[in-house]
Amino acid sequence: MTNRINKVIELLEQNQPVYYTVAPDVSYEGGKALAKTFADYIQVSMEHNIYDMNALGAFMQGLIDGGPTASGHRTPAVCIDLPLEGSSEADVRANAWMYKQALCQGVHGVILCHAESPDAVRAFVQACRFPFQTAGMKEGDEPGRRGAGGQMRAAEVWGIPPDDYLLVADPWPLNPKGEIMLGLKIENKRALANAETTAKVPGIIFAEWGPGDMGMSLGYPNAHDPPYSPDMEKARNTVKSACQNAGIHFLEGAHTDDVSSKIDEGVMFMNCYDHETGVKTGRAHTKRTMPV
């Protein structure tokens, strides 16, 4: 028996790092093929790929039909990035329909790309919350803006009644009962300048520094992979420090030979470029007991 719908949250509650893989094929067949993935969650990337909710819905169904996971979860968790940017509150408000549609397909997490300002991040969190959810809110905070009508399909994907879905489809740990994870990409110079304040917006669970985009912002055509220049290292450490100060988790890539040291450094969300080999090394390092 699992304690959570979202496997990532269950692992974080055990103080275990989590590992993801990127979906190469967002289709029914692609979902079925990844249902038994070695990873804890799957990142679906539509930031630079086609925005296709039909494909996403089919992918989620494929995960269900190919599951459950060895850990007993109905599906691996799914986190999506979308082709809208957090350059301003107005930009997020105008494009928040993308988040709402993705959540209605049953994804477990959403990432805001180019999170440049705390106002944009607050608008992002509000777009992903139902108005009646008040956990973690302070006087004067705006309520959520996610509307009724799309919860039926999402509840079906999660394998729970729609009324139950409404109660748990909320950001964790802002809501201790929540099953949704919200993340940020602090991946350009403008975002870097506000990293400390954006990371502290309530409702965020992790952030990454996006070395590919960060490198371009700093003037490099392709600086995604190490070794990094001093200004890239400074950008990386700025985002990592902002995460630590805000009490959220830092996401970064890792290899088999450095996954253990990154865990010791505090990295809790990882994409292991060596895939299953690196993930096995990391899980052994933390003496993880939950099955894949």
Give descriptors for this structure.
single chain; 292 residues; alpha/beta; TIM Barrel; eight-stranded parallel beta barrel; 8 strands
Structural class: alpha/beta
Question: Per CATH, what is the topology?
Answer: TIM Barrel
The description of the largest β-sheet is: 8 strands, parallel, barrel
Pattern of helices and strands: HEHEHEHHEHHHEHHEHHEHEH
Beta-strand percentage? 15-25%
| CATH class value | Alpha Beta
**What percent of residues adopt helix (DSSP H or I)?**
40-55%
Strand order, sheet with most strands: 1-2-3-4-5-6-7-8
Give me the count of strands.
Answer: 8
Distance between the termini: 14 Å
**Count of the domains:** 1
Q: What is the residue-mean pLDDT, rounded to a whole number?
A: 97
Give the CA-based shape: globular
Report the radius of gyration as a whole number of Å.
18 Å
> What low-confidence regions span 5 or more consecutive residues with pLDDT below 50?
none
CATH architecture assignment name: Alpha-Beta Barrel
Please give the count of helices. 14
Identify the CATH homologous superfamily. Answer: Phosphoenolpyruvate-binding domains
Please explain how this structure is put together.
This protein has 292 residues and is of the alpha/beta class. It has one domain (7-285): Phosphoenolpyruvate-binding domains (TIM Barrel, Alpha-Beta Barrel). It contains 14 helices and eight strands. The chain has helices at 7-13, 28-34, 53-66, 89-95, 97-104, 118-127, 151-158, 162-168, 189-193, 195-198, 211-217, 230-246, 259-265, 276-285, and strands at residues 18-22, 41-45, 77-85, 109-113, 181-185, 206-208, 249-254, 267-272. Strands 1-2-3-4-5-6-7-8 form an eight-stranded parallel β-barrel, surrounded by seven helices. β1 (18-22), α2 and β2 (41-45) form a beta-alpha-beta unit. It is globular, with a radius of gyration of 18 Å. The model has no long low-confidence stretch (mean pLDDT 97).
